[in-house]
Design a protein that fits this description.
Structural class: alpha/beta
Bound molecules: nicotinamide-adenine-dinucleotide
Low-confidence stretches: 734-738
CATH superfamily of the largest domain: 2-enoyl-CoA Hydratase, Chain A, domain 1
Strand order of the largest sheet: 14-13-12-15-16-17-18-19
CATH class of the largest domain: Alpha Beta
Largest sheet: 8 strands, mixed
Oligomer: single chain
CATH topology of the largest domain: 2-enoyl-CoA Hydratase, Chain A, domain 1
Mean pLDDT: 95
Length: about 750
């Protein structure tokens, strides 16, 4: 037996002549592909193919999974690292990857007779994602261990790219456009059995037989077994090509679906579809070239790099504690949740799901029980979907004690208060809690509008007082905003971060200022929409402009969802606090009039939209036309879009200038996860970087000249425009000094 090792791969050949290449990246729990790794794999395969003593090859992994995919840092940096002519550099790199996988697929066979190749099987012990499936797809047979927790698929589209190492072309040819569509367009992942049923892999075998089964197949395989259908004469794509009647229907449908879902702002889905469509019309090797061209097109689009940076690299960095003060582990063992209303009930649920004991308190036992019942209902839904079991439900419910007795809080190391949004009520609760908890307990408030520093005045230990701001619904929303009051200490920040990590959400840490970060940016978005309505801009134009630039909801729909009376309440409180400087009277005129008519939004079945009796949204309310007659000349789409986007991103810049935000990564990640800010852009700062500071400043000047001082170019942006700086260039990871 001979053994050869590179840093990530080992090859050993057994007595029967089967070479096993084992992928095992040192120091990582899951294999990820690097450029060097790819070259090493190619070299080992080449060696085995050239070795007369080797009859065939099995490619497997030394871990309990096969691979998690390509290293995303490499993909994010590919464009910048591709030289002076990046498109050419990228294309050459991608074509090289195709050549390596094509060498595996052809396995040394004579291209004319298709004879004489060596069989190559992939043996997947577990999860195989992205390039971790594209390599097996180039092999001749794919075996997977019967591991129901394993996930097999091509999730690239979720990252803003698409499978660019032949996965797109091979899967479309293997399954047909219809069969491949959920896997490619939605990034659907399957367990091994489902992957086999879908035709993605060939065999599912017991884990302990995996290697033996793959080796046995390799030894028994005949020439014909290792020729891919697309390399055989007379190959026809399953389900038909675009000019086949059935294929035609699939492609028309897919195109409508993609454009409907992405609103045209996600370049990857369209590029993917083009690669499949165009690829289906030409021979396989040409199809790979087409795939490579579209893949490069996506990599060259700044959206893909920005999405990967914010949604994967930086999101993960924040979750791992990039901004955590260096203090000892602050893991939470028992949390007290005060107020078992909508937010408190959700906070209790996510805490118990993470295995944390919860004391859930409300003013009456009935209210506390009702809050706990939210967890019961959640688990019942999970059981109905087969995602949970009765045992799990009993275990989670067993962690929650619903009571009115503050003494039960004695053993808590963290309190999250979610009572009414009222200074007096919150102050009283703070005192009652501090009378019973231990000296190290951290007190967090879930307030959305009250200043943390002011609330901390009720506390005897303000350094242990902090804001932990959840978004609604708590179990669905991934972002948690942690707010430092003036006196909040590092231990409290670490406690909040460790807690957020335990409940598997993404934290951002901001300083105390009106509306913190997320609400500070989203309120101007809603206000700008309402302002335009009052000016006579067609409401359908406002709503569609927002969606066409990637916002999940138009501003009018958003205020209907969050309720118009809440908008009125916030407006009144803000005006009371700001006095003369209050800039939003024009918005209030609309909001207050809607509220006076009882049009409070979805909850009243009447708002800017009309709803039927069952709460189904029908369309924009017809009465808007009479109340806000539409101007004869309507603005350009892009003007409406810029008003809606700049309203948000300028608040983000001001938050950075004011030191509320201290890290632009948090500004970008928080915006996408917190309020769905155009994810394709990578977030407000990434979007401004795409525009470039000089153009962004120019647009602000033009917008402020026409629409008012709220669009005035912030000093920081002006300075960056003058110096030709970008946000990520200037602030890199964190903000050093604005
Ligand atoms: P809610 O009215 O649904 O629940 C508040 C609960 O607190 C009620 O069950 C009430 O009985 C209880 N309560 C009031 N006074 C109490 C006391 N002295 N002791 C014990 N329990 C008491 O309100 P909510 O929507 O869950 O909001 C709670 C807090 O979370 C508020 O500060 C709010 O601003 C904030 N918040 C709300 C949202 C949201 O979308 N609703 C989002 C983020 C933050």
């Amino acid at each position: 037996m001979t053994v050869q090792t590179t840093s990530d791969f080992t090859m050993s050949t057994d007595a029967e002549g089967v070479a096993t290449i084992t992928w095992d990246v040192p120091g990582k729990s899951m294999n990820v592909m690097s450029l060097q790794g790819f070259a090493d794999l190619d070299a080992l395969v080449g060696q085995a193919l050239a070795d007369a003593g080797v009859k065939g090859i099995v490619i497997t992994s030394g871990k309990d999974s096969f691979a998690g995919g390509m290293d995303l840092n490499i993909i994010a940096g590919m464009r910048d690292g591709a030289g002076d002519d990046p498109a050419r550099g990228l294309f050459d790199g991608v074509m090289n990857m195709h050549a390596v996988l094509r060498r595996i697929e052809r396995a040394g066979m004579d291209p004319k007779t298709l004879k004489g190749g060596k069989p190559i099987a992939a043996a997947l012990p577990g999860t195989a994602l992205g390039i971790g499936l594209e390599i097996p797809l180039a092999c001749h047979r794919i075996f997977a261990a019967d591991n129901p927790r394993a996930k097999i698929g091509l999730p690239e589209i979720m990252v803003g790219i698409f499978p660019g190492a032949g996965g797109t072309t091979r899967l479309a040819r293997k399954l047909g456009a219809m069969g491949a569509s959920p896997l490619l367009l939605e990034g659907k992942l399957n367990d091994p059995k489902k992957a086999k049923a879908a035709g993605v892999i060939d065999e599912v075998v017991p884990a302990e037989e995996l290697l033996a089964a793959a080796k046995a197949w390799v030894l028994a395989a005949k020439d014909a077994d290792i020729v891919k259908p697309w390399d055989q004469k007379g190959y026809k794509m399953p389900g038909g090509t675009p000019y086949h009647p059935a294929g035609y229907m699939t492609f028309v449908g897919a195109s409508a679906m993609v454009n409907g879902k992405t609103m045209g702002v996600y370049p990857a889905a369209r590029a993917l579809l083009s690669a499949v469509y165009e690829g289906a019309l030409v021979p396989f090797d040409t199809a790979l070239r087409i795939e490579a061209r579209w893949f490069v097109n996506v990599l060259m689009n700044p959206s893909s790099g920005a999405m990967i940076r914010s949604l994967f690299i930086n999101k993960e960095a924040l979750e791992k504690g990039a901004n955590r003060p260096a203090v000892a582990d602050q893991k939470v063992t028992q949390v007290g949740v005060i107020g078992a209303g909508m937010m408190g009930a959700g906070i209790a649920l996510v805490s118990a799901l993470a295995g944390i004991r919860v004391v859930l308190i409300d003013a009456t036992q009935e209210a506390a029980d009702k809050g706990k019942a939210y967890t019961t209902a959640y688990m019942d839904k999970g059981i109905a979907r087969k995602a949970a079991t009765e045992e799990k439900k009993a275990q989670v419910l067993g962690l929650i004690t619903a009571t009115t007795d503050y003494a039960a809080l004695a053993g808590c190391d963290l309190i999250v208060e979610a009572v009414f949004e009222d200074m007096g009520v919150k102050a009283e609760v703070t005192k009652k809690v501090e009378a019973v908890v231990g000296p190290d307990c951290v007190f967090a408030t879930n307030t959305s509008t009250l200043p943390i520093t002011a609330l901390a005045k009720a506390s005897a230990r303000p350094e242990q007082f902090i804001g932990i701001h959840f978004f609604s619904p708590v179990d669905k929303m991934a972002l948690v905003e942690i707010i430092r009051g003036k006196k909040t200490g590092d231990v409290a920040v670490a406690k909040a971060l460790d807690y957020v990590r335990q409940i598997r959400k993404t934290p951002i840490v901001v300083n105390d200022a009106r509306f913190f970060y997320a609400n500070r940016c989203i309120i101007p978005y809603i206000n700008e929409g309402i302002r335009m309505l009052a000016e006579g801009v067609a409401p359908a134009l406002i709503e569609n402009a927002a969606k066409l630039v990637g916002m999940p909801l138009g501003p009018l729909q958003l205020v209907d969802e969050t309720s118009i009376d809440l908008g009125v309440k916030i407006a009144k409180a803000t005006k009371a606090a700001m006095g003369e400087d209050y800039p939003d009277d024009a918005v209030d005129a609309v909001l207050f009039a809607m509220a006076d008519q009882g049009r409070l939004g979805r909850k009243a079945n009447a708002g800017f939209y009309a709803y039927d009796d069952k709460g189904q949204r029908l369309g924009l309310w017809e009465g808007l036309q009479a109340a806000y007659p539409q101007a004869i000349i309507q603005p350009e789409l892009v003007t409406v879009q810029h008003r809606l986007l700049f309203a948000q991103v300028l608040e983000a810049v001001r938050a950075l200038e004011a030191g509320v935000l201290t890290d632009i990564r948090e500004g970008d990640v928080g915006a996408i996860l917190g309020w769905g800010f155009a994810p394709w852009s990578g977030g407000p700062f990434s979007w401004l970087d795409m525009l470039g500071a000089p153009y962004a400043a120019e647009r602000c000047d033009a917008l402020s000249a026409t629409f008012g001082a709220r669009f005035a170019t912030p000093a920081l942006l002006r300075e960056m425009a003058d110096k030709g700086q970008s946000f990520y260039g200037r602030f890199g990871g964190a903000r050093d000094a604005a």
